[in-house]
From TrEMBL:
Top-level taxon in the UniProt lineage: Bacteria
GO terms (BP aspect): methionine biosynthetic process; transsulfuration
Protein family per UniProt: Belongs to the trans-sulfuration enzymes family.
InterPro entries linked: Cys/Met-Metab_PyrdxlP-dep_enz, Cys_met_metab_PP, PyrdxlP-dep_Trfase, PyrdxlP-dep_Trfase_major, PyrdxlP-dep_Trfase_small
Keywords: Lyase, Pyridoxal phosphate
An MF annotation (GO) of this entry: carbon-sulfur lyase activity
GO cellular component, one term: cytoplasm
Cofactor(s) this protein requires: pyridoxal 5'-phosphate
UniProt-recorded name of the protein: Cystathionine beta-lyase
Amino acid sequence: MEHATDELKSKGFSTRAVHAGNVEDVMTGGVNTPIFPSSAYRVPGPLGEVVYPRYQNIPTQRAVAEKIAALEGGESALVVSSGMAAISSVFLAFCAPGDHVVLQRDLYGGTHHLAARELPRLGVETTWVPSQDPEDFEAALGPATRILYLETPSNPLMKILDLEALARVARRRGVLTVVDNTFATPVNQNPLALGIDIVVHSGTKYLNGHSDLCCGAIVTRRDLMERIYGVVAAYGPSLSPYDCYLLERGMKTLAVRMRQHNENGAKIAAFLDGHPRVRQVYYPGLANHPGHHIAALQMRAFGAMLSFEPDCDTATAQVVMERLRFFKPAVSLGGVESLACFPAQTSHAPLSPEERLALGISDSLIRLSVGIEDPEDLMEDLDQALAAIG
Ligand SMILES: Cc1ncc(COP(=O)(O)O)c(C=O)c1O
């Protein structure tokens, strides 16, 4: 039995995570949404529409999109083949040559690369705002600005933006706001409820949560989605039904996973903050984080992403990394297992050394994606690795 989305609207997050979008198998009574692998469907079909994977209307695709919409509190969602497909589809939907986009300077390296190298090739101009002050963002908006693009907490220094204030500023000027909600997840933050127009996700991360899938998602109002849908159908970054199934399965446990992620993130941040071999910790849940006040207002919890500067040179930081046992030295984030990386070598490698320096990303900065293991084991692991610093 499919639960009507309206019936679920008043229900709690975990209930929506389990039930929203779910389609029972009418042939067998199986409780999970079946994987519909066909790429060829009879015309006319039972619903009178042409069904095709690139049109995003296979039931397995629709089920997971409906779940994401229910969790973000949006009217409509689409799932695509990566987080970057979600982000680039939004730019392609609303920007044309001569248009202008304003972005925060602190962004995931791939998004930075897209905006710095690819958008100009399409004749779209960009302005980067180096601060978190809404007035600076407002000053950057011009008559040709179409999109204000934001990420909070940002990758990798966890900078926090006041989403309500920025949504107000942009709406006054007729500019669409887009927020990458990958780090926060809908468990910790709902940008649409704060007035933001479009939410994008790298579903590769927490939404799926098991580091075995690459996917993305877009959530927004129906009228805006029509434009985005046109781009997705035309350029074709659809998500296979097999991957949709995995994503839907992963999302059913999002709330319980995030409970443990949030608890572990806070514990590890406090542990590192008090560690004699750590120079600085970047975690919005710490009272000494410059964005803590805003984060406490707009987030329900602070997540499990954090970065820190070990009190040593780059070569020794490399040894710290090599000594870690539970934190695997891997790119990506948001899975049940803890990961560690040097953003300068991974997420922000596409940037030049000068660009990284301007962002405050040193070669020894270590980013942690704290998993759901027992926090005591993770702290012990970090402690023995940091002992490499003499
Ligand atoms: C915050 C953020 N947004 C977007 C992306 C891009 O996602 P994907 O790798 O699924 O394309 C990433 C990838 O690391 C990310 O960290």
